[in-house]
Amino acid sequence: MLTPRRIEIFKAIVDEYIKTAEPVGSKMLQTKYKLPYSSATIRNDMQVLEEMGYLEKTHTSSGRIPSTLGYKFYCENLLKNSAIDKKMEVAIRDAFEVSNMNISEAVEHSCRILSEMTNMTTGAIGPDSSAQRLEHLKLFQIDTRNAVVVMITNTGHTETKNFRFEEDVSFKDLETCTDILNQHLKGVPITELPDEMEKLKPELAAVVQRHDLLFTAFVQAFVRFASENVYFSGKDRMLYQPEFEDISKLKQLMSMLDDSTVWRRIGNDEHALVTTARGAELTWYNDVAIVRSKFRVNDSETGQLMVVGPSRMNYDQVVGMLDYVAQMIEKMYRKTGGGRT
After folding, report:
1. Which 8-state DSSP code applies to residue 238?
2. In terms of residue numbers, what domain contains 13?
3. Is 111 helix (H, G, I), strand (E, B) or coil?
4. What are phi and psi of 120, to 5 degrees?
5. Tens of pLDDT, residues 64-120
6. Do 283 and 147 share a structural domain?
7. How many structural domains does the chain have?
8. Do the beta carbons of residue 296 and residue 115 sit within 8 Å?
9. pTM
10. CB contact at 8 A, 113 and 105
């Protein structure tokens, strides 16, 4: 059974392994953590913890390391729930206070900061567009070569994209093109918009002078809306984690990072799932740990922030940072009325 003494020993092992990535032995525990138990007692309790499935013995050392079951227990019961470090808080907050940054840029910048702070891969998943339908398009001309299109969905979500044309486009062409698209594309699923645009090409060519430029701009915007909802930063940082010195494991991880559909499935996967007191969700796949924190865009849509790394990560620090960034993203969405640029 998990007695208070065994829990104390187990926590010390996890804390030490997170710091060093080295198997933990009884004598080192006794000395470094000043445990008031004999080395033999600690060794016996480590054996019991291994038999219970919370620890594993490596092939190269007599020390132990935490198992996936052990990490689950640690995250469910032993996280300190401490406040985020003030320097980290300031760095993250500053990322959202740059006046000329839109929301997408702020989220990506925050991912880069989190990656640097954790030395792991970080990511963000925007609201899932696959279940949404186009409600209305609004297009605003800035000058003859620049415009902004706002796409509004049936859920109330808005997506803003910038158009930069290589040649001059008249206001009349912009207005006519937008009117045609609103007439024919209302109610079309976001993922089907590029195909539906292809059907409208003859009609656009008949009445819009620069239909080629506008057709390309709208198709690219629709494709980005449907697909650009997963962003990763710091993929190369996994190269420096000792757990991924095995090339086959590294290739498998990189393949996961390059497949955006994987992360949607993981978000709905109950395998090895832990929900912490702060609302973060943790999932383990072999030697990979995925920590996710949701942020709300509006009443019906959410996105996710992620840190992806080895099971041996500082969960308390990571959970605290993700929670804080999620709060900052929600504040920015509220300020902009739920839109995303």
Report:
1. G
2. 4-77
3. helix
4. -130, 175
5. 999 999 999 999 899 877 678 888 888 888 777 765 666 667 778 888 888 988 889
6. no
7. 3
8. no
9. 0.71
10. no
